[in-house]
Structure formats: structure tokens, C-alpha cells
Specification:
Layout lengths: L12 E6 L6 E3 L4 E3 L8 E11 L6 E10 L24 H10 L1 H41 L1
Antiparallel strand pairs: 1-4, 2-3, 4-5
Helix pairs in contact: 1-2
Length: 146
């Protein structure tokens, strides 16, 4: 799904796509891209999605996307229930999901929060370890003088 917003809340945005493979559809009203590649459509496809507002002066944003269709594994079909090479029988694409997650603001926020948490835990752990070592040294000095 292609989604676009404009800084001008009243702006009308027109979505379009260039380079759709045979059999692919793009609904400019909903932004839905749909394509189930045929058996003979293995290879790499470059599709360009465009968002153009109708204001004056008009502004345009272009997002190229590359789709790679790999041959089905023996006994299966790409993305079908027979177990294609897309990562299992469900047709789930992990790299597609990761790309979508990383490219969304919420995904970036989640990744940033997770990294912040990891760094915070590392700093607290190092601080606690340092404090423990200092306490051990003081205890050793106190027990050594008695």
C-alpha cells in the first residue's frame, strides 16, 4: 500500500505508478499495489510510485521500489501454499516486513527505543559492576586491618 501526506491539510494528492509488471494493478484512489507473479515472471522489476499534489506550485515525491521474483522451489509456487522460496508456505516475506518496519516512523521510533533501552541497561550494568568492585576493595581493606 502506498500512502502519502501533504503539509498542506487541504491538498489533494494523486498517486500513480510507473513500470508495473504484466498482471500487476495499482489503484490510485486507495494506493493498493497488487501482483501475483506468474511462473514465467522470475527476475527483477523496478516500479516507481509517485505522489503529486494538486497545489500551485505542484510538488511531487517519487519512491522507486525493486521487486525480485525468485523461481519456486520444486513442488511449490511463489507465495502459494505449496511452499515457495519466499520463506515458507505462507508466502511471508521477512525482508519485505523488515523494510516496511524500518521505513516507517513508528518502526524507527521502536528501533530507536530498543537501542536506547539496550544502551541504558549496559550503562547501568557497568556502573553497578564498578560500584561492586569498589565495595569489594573497601571490604578487603577493612577486613585486612582487623
Amino acid at each position: 500500500m502506498v500512502h502519502a501526506t501533504d503539509a498542506n491539510p487541504g491538498a489533494v494528492i494523486f498517486l500513480s505508478a510507473i513500470g508495473l509488471p504484466t498482471g500487476a494493478t495499482f489503484d490510485s484512489d486507495t494506493g493498493v499495489f497488487n501482483w501475483k507473479p506468474g511462473a514465467g515472471q522470475t527476475g527483477s522489476y523496478s516500479i516507481v510510485f509517485l505522489a503529486t499534489d494538486k497545489s500551485d506550485p505542484s510538488q511531487r515525491d517519487v519512491k522507486p521500489m525493486t521487486v525480485v521474483v525468485v523461481p519456486a522451489s520444486p513442488g511449490g509456487t511463489n507465495g502459494g501454499s505449496g511452499g515457495g522460496s519466499s520463506g515458507g508456505g505462507s508466502g511471508y516475506c521477512l525482508s519485505c516486513a523488515m523494510t516496511t518496519l524500518v521505513s516507517s516512523p513508528i518502526g524507527l521510533l521502536a528501533i530507536g527505543g530498543l537501542l536506547g533501552l539496550i544502551v541504558s541497561l549496559a550503562v547501568v550494568s557497568m556502573s553497578a559492576r564498578s560500584s561492586l568492585e569498589n565495595t569489594k576493595r573497601r571490604m578487603h581493606r577493612l577486613t585486612h586491618y582487623e
